[in-house]
Each structure stands twice: as structure tokens, then as C-alpha cells.
Amino acid sequence: LKDVVAKRGKAVSVVVGNQKGGVGKTANSTLISYILAENGVKTLVIDLDPQANASQTLIHTGIRDAVSRKAPSTEYPMVGKTIMSGIADGDLTDLPVRIKDNLYLLPSYADFEGFVKYLYKHADTEEEESHFLKPLLDPLTKDYDVIILDMPPQIGEVRDNAIVFADFVLISLQTQSGSLKGAEVYIDKLVDLKVKYNLSIELLGLLAVLNNRRGSVDLAIMEQVKNDMGEEIVFSDVVPNMERIKRFHIQGIGEDDRFDTQVLNVYRKVSTEFAQRINDFLG
């Protein structure tokens, strides 16, 4: 993956999306990023959700890492200005916060709820609205290997700006009917924007997050996805329902016991396929 990035001279950017909330987008964004960083891939997570769940998870991750190294508190990640203040200043390059080796965060905050209102005040056309963030995000691509964008559900203006900027979309699909519908809506919008603005963005794949690995509904939805969208679009590895993932939001990501290791081993497989799919597109 690093060779592909070096050849193209800028980061590979991936939106993790689904029109529905609560389908594992933030867990997938933060854990894939953590594993990429673990493997020497300089990774930036851009949190575009005003709920800031990815930001909270990664800030706790940085603190956990510093504590494990017995580092002084001065090495704890500290958030400076908010993303909305950066947008107002016309510069996001000084926002990223170091979490740990090779892992950085452009944090969100509650004031990002005002983005849509700000957007309509400062953009005159539909195209300007959907391309508003791209010139602010583009300068970040020279400093990282991979940029992963964690998205809010249902805020179409944020979704459109992320799609216009990114190289790929990874759909996070929890095995429930509402999540499948949200994935379909997201993919339809991806296709609409790709055609409308002649974008080079591609669908990287669909990563399934199981409610119940043996549940009849889960299995039926997986079969429906493969039949409707094609088996090749679905990641070969799935994310089972693991309680430890929920705890990472509170205590940060790390590997202190076998439950941590179980989660991270799943995402090591997922991240390997994630990188391979990017290589297949760009290599």
C-alpha cells in the first residue's frame, strides 16, 4: 500500500459510509486506521460527525498509548481549534492531532452541527455546496498515506462533500434491513455524484458487521447483498458482534488482554483485505 501511495504522490482517501446510523461506521473507521498505523501506514482519521465518537475513541486511544509507555502527560493528545473554526479560517492543515505512531486525527466537535448552515451562507450553487470541503481537505493528502473519513448518518451535505473529495467508499453494513436500505441509498447517491461531476471515486467494498453470526436474519441479509450487488463486492472477512469494541470508545483502542487481541485480530484480517483492494484498483 505504501508503494502505491508513493507512486501516486498523495494519500488514498476512503469514506466509511452508510445512510443509516449505528451500523459500525466509527468502529470500522477507527480500528482499520489503528491497524494500518500499526503496520507503518501513516493514517489520518477525519471525523465529520458532530457527535465526535471517532474523536473520543482516538483521543482515549492516544492517552491509553501514552500511559502504557509511562509517557508524561504532555504527550497526551490535545485538541486545539475545532473543525468549524478551521473551516471558517479556510485552513485545516493545523488541526490534525497525533494519537500515536503513524496515527493522526482531525477531530470533530459539537459546533460542526453548524456546518450545513455555514455552507448555505457561503456557497451559491449546488456544485459549490458539494465541493466546499475539497479545497480544504486536498492539502492534507500530501502528508499521509491513507485518509479515512468517518461520517454522520443522514447529513447529505457532509456525505456529498466527502464523496467529492475521496478516492473510495467503504460501506459499513450491519446485518439488519434498515442498514441494507441505508447502504443502497448511499450507493445510489455515490453513483449519482460520480456521473454528475465525473468523479473518479470507486466503491471499495462492503464490510459486514454481524448482529448475530448464526442468526437467520443476518444470514438472509448477507445472501441478499451477494445476490443483489455481487459476491465480489462483499469483504471476505466479517466483523462479529464483540462487546469489547464498545469499550474501546470509553477506554481507547489497545491490546492488553485476549479480548482486545480477538478484536484486533479480526481487524488485522479486514485491514489486509482493505489494503489489497486499494492495491488492486491503483497498483
TrEMBL record:
InterPro entries: AAA_dom, DNA_Partitioning_ATPase, P-loop_NTPase. Residues 14-201 form the AAA domain. Transmembrane segments: none annotated. It comes from the Bacteria. PANTHER family: COBYRINIC ACID AC-DIAMIDE SYNTHASE, P-LOOP CONTAINING NUCLEOSIDE TRIPHOSPHATE HYDROLASE. This is ATPase.
